[in-house]
Amino acid sequence: MRLPNPATGIHNMSYQARQRWFSNGLFWRTFFLLTFLITASMVAWVASFRMVERGPRAEQLAAQIVSVVTITRAALTHSAPEMRRELLFDLASNEGIRIYPLEKTDKISPPDDSPVLPELEFYVKQAMGDDTQFASGVNDVDGFWISFKIDEDEYWLMLDRGRLDRTSSLQWLGWGSIALVLSLIGAVFISTLINQPLARLTAAARAIAKGKQPDPLPESGPTEIREANLSFNQMVADLDRIESDRAVILAGISHDLRTPLARMQLEVEMARLSDEARDGMHSDLAQMDAIIGQFLDYAKPFDSSSFTPVDLSGLLEDAANNSKRLNDVMVSTAIAPDIEVMGNTVELERIISNLIENARRYGKTAGTEVANIDILCKIEDRHVKVEISDHGPGAPDSELEHLLRPFTRLDTARGQANGSGLGLAIVNRIVIRHNGKLALRNRDGGGLVVQMMFPTVPARGGNPRKQAA
């Protein structure tokens, strides 16, 4: 089983994170739920309002129509014949009321279908008689037409539609749209207010996962949020204290061990021992001192605020050139020039030297005493990809993940019993603190591949190492 390509994994994870944020994010779930509830409430309210106000509105419009017809009929009945023309002109120009004789040959268009119309006709006919006619147009003239009688003569009275239907569907749509937009703005505000504490908590937890110290969360707001933030801050403080205590303990133990080691080295030099025994003890003491050094490296505090652009290509080239001087190492490189990452030069040099030394010790090619090491560095999917691989026995696929844990050694696979099991753990710790990702896999044909992915640095003018030279 081969581990997935970290570069592809990082790209896929970013895409999947965006997809989850849009599809399953709590903010959008809350927003869409509030939007649905607000929209449904508005639709139900408008429908209920239209149904409830239909009767009173029809009765009010009927009273208005009856009043206009009655007043117009009375004005025409009691006015002098020679004044009626002027009266009709005044009604048309000032009140929007037009009077026409009703002829049997009139071309009548039926009234527009409206929920209010049946009740309106009922109230009007109740006041003016069942023979009252309604029309939406007469002789191709649109309007609200209603018939009435003066003695035995029949007339049409035409009113403007806007006089009766004060609120059009377009106006209702406009008011509804404004109300909906304001409601959606409120939904965004509410969703943000609800999800902002969770977003802060997520960001803080992600910072801890990357080995960073997050800012304390505000211990205010609703009781549940306040208690969650208080507990989280307490947890962060406890983790920081545990980390500090562990660093102090490891550093103290390592420092105290070097004093007796120094005495033992002196005693070995002064003791009457054979050269073979003395060399063996020197080797054991050197190995113990190297393990203590690894303890100190693992416990060393780390500050990411001092990161600067580092010429990673140059560091790899220098490490490869230094390794080529060793008799038991053969190095081949495929390093793209002028690749930079944000980081600490000393720490990046440490992980490169640790990986090369790990390959030199445990990755010797089968049947030889030489470690063939391949170093690759290039830009891939907007990330810096670094691979350091050997041609040794590799490791069981099921145990690859455990190799990154502290104090883990896979002696049966790598053929060695030396070391503290901190080498790859230190490398992984430094890579994570450089916002990178480390993965192990077995290469085709045998050997272990250590792959690291780092964020790229925006291109600047020239290579600083070359400029310094």
Q: What does this molecule look like?
A:
The chain folds into three domains: 1-207, Sensor histidine kinase RisS, periplasmic domain (Beta-Lactamase, 2-Layer Sandwich), CATH 3.30.450.300; 214-290; 304-459, Histidine kinase-like ATPase, C-terminal domain (Heat Shock Protein 90). Helix content is 56%, strand content 16%. The chain contains 13 helices and twelve strands. The longest helix has 53 residues, at 26-78. It starts with 5 loop residues before the first helix and ends with a helix.
What is shown here, in short?
This protein is of the alpha+beta class and 469 residues long. It contains 13 helices and 12 strands.
Please render the helix and strand layout as text:
Elements: H1 6-23, H2 26-78, H3 84-95, E1 98-101, E2 108-109, H4 117-128, E3 134-138, E4 141-150, E5 153-159, H5 161-164, H6 169-209, H7 223-270, H8 275-299, E6 308-311, H9 312-324, E7 329-335, E8 340-343, H10 345-362, E9 371-380, E10 383-389, H11 411-414, H12 423-433, E11 437-442, E12 448-455, H13 464-468
Parallel strand pairs: 7-9
Antiparallel strand pairs: 1-5, 2-3, 3-4, 4-5, 6-8, 9-10, 10-12, 11-12
Helix pairs in contact: 2-4, 2-6, 6-7, 7-8, 9-10, 10-12
